[in-house]
Specification:
This protein is α/β, with parallel strands linked by helices. The chain is built from 15 helices and 20 strands. Helix 4 crosses helix 8 and helix 6 runs antiparallel to helix 7. Bound molecules: flavin-adenine dinucleotide.
Length: 491
Amino acid sequence: MRKENGKSCAVIGSGVSGLAASIRMRNKGYRVTVFEANSFPGGKLSSESNQGYRFDMGPSVFTMPQFADELFTLSGKNPRDYFRYERLDPVYRYFFEDGSTLEGVNGKEAYAQSMANGTIDSKEDIFKYLEKTEEMYNLTDEVFLHNSLHVPKNFFTKAVAKGILNFGKIGAFDTMNGANEKAFKDPRLVQVFNRYSTYNGSSPFLAPATLNVISHVEIERGAYYPEGGMVSITKALEKLAKDIGVEFLYSTPVREILLENKRAKGVRTDHESHAFDLVISNMDVYNTYHKLIPSAKKPKRTLDQPKSSSGIIFYWGIKGKFEQLTLHNILFAEDYKAEFDTIFEKKEIYHDPTIYVNITAKHSPDDAPEGCENWFSFINVPNNQGQDWDAFIDQAREAIIRKVDRMLGTDLRSLIECEMVFDPRVIENRTSSAFGAIYGNSSNNKFAAFMRHPNFSKSIKGLYFCGGSVHPGPSIPLCLLSAKITTNLIK
Ligand SMILES: Cc1cc2nc3c(=O)[nH]c(=O)nc-3n(C[C@H](O)[C@H](O)[C@H](O)COP(=O)(O)OP(=O)(O)OC[C@H]3O[C@@H](n4cnc5c(N)ncnc54)[C@H](O)[C@@H]3O)c2cc1C
């Protein structure tokens, strides 16, 4: 039995981080109410169906599942009674314009061997690189991912001292591409490792080499597939939260955070005001300030940092099966530098984009009718600066179809049975992500980690933040850690 503490907490938003924060606050004894603008939970981590096809609308790669499991054990429950997942092998299949393919498999040893078989780099060199990213991860993990970067006492720890002593090893002075070009002779391997910058919506030609740690998480610690698709994570967390007594109010957008004497006192929805002792906003922090507390002083420098990229996603029902594809597939652009320059400098879409095709029917056959596949076809695009997105969508559809036809030898258009499309405007409307940026601030400079908003307000007592737009950043595992850091700050 949880010990009630007689206090109440509002959570604004039921994204993965909002769900995790609600579970943690309930376990601290708070009466917790989650206000969600949509009629469904999960924010980006949600699902939709169309003509017999089911699609996960956002995340597709699940890493560090232990951070989700932790919420169940904390609540005295067995995570396996709520959701199950399997480790993937292979994880990725990569396709190049020269007709070659590479296979990203599971674990350092096998990965190095698989890549050495298909490239001019040796297994030893590839393995050495993977060891280096592991060392970088071990040096940065505790400092950057598990604690607030905005609480001075967190800088006087053994982990920080170790990080400082080994500063030269964490790649702060090179870009991801710079480090990867030094590590590999084969340009395809450079491209494969550069790709990890897209996991937080940045360019490998600008983002610091420290972010090469992302590949370590996926390759060595594993990528997983939850039974029933990614939305099972949302369903499991929502069920857990309800089982332990969290209250959910759906289709209930918060319009204002109520303040009194520089203290959060509650929230106002369309119909009424609700008093709370604490407020945690899982809404994008830029929009929290601009829309829910417009009169409060804004941390302008933090809020105005350049935002990450976004995506155009076609959710296609495909009448046919592609044996050469697996769950996660990448069809690379020929010129990666030109693609990122187009996205981040010109703020347009590239004519030969790298395409990510995710097909959950490969693991969950019920996600598509017999003999068919559900294609989540994603390209990276700039965030929304008022571009002509309807024209971009038409260009993107043509570019993807042309490239898939060329690289997989098919006639994709004739196989598309139904279509749904997301663009930055839809992402913005559906999740209130500023400018439709998927990952909050971009990480296109070496100070970006320090420029994310803290998990608490420096000027308003009782107001906290969690989710992909604040520390430590985007992705399911980081959003789960964000909720942990936030709630750990609440004594
Ligand atoms: C296409 C795509 C692919 C991705 N791929 C991956 C991947 O493979 N792996 C991975 O780990 N991550 C991936 N991500 C990133 C990941 O989805 C996000 O970082 C994470 O889900 C963000 O969660 P969040 O808690 O910040 O909240 P969000 O998902 O942004 O949800 C915020 C919630 O708050 C609600 N809300 C906002 N304002 C209000 C208000 N005023 N009142 C009430 N409710 C409000 C919204 O309706 C929404 O439900 C991807 C994202 C996208 C879009």
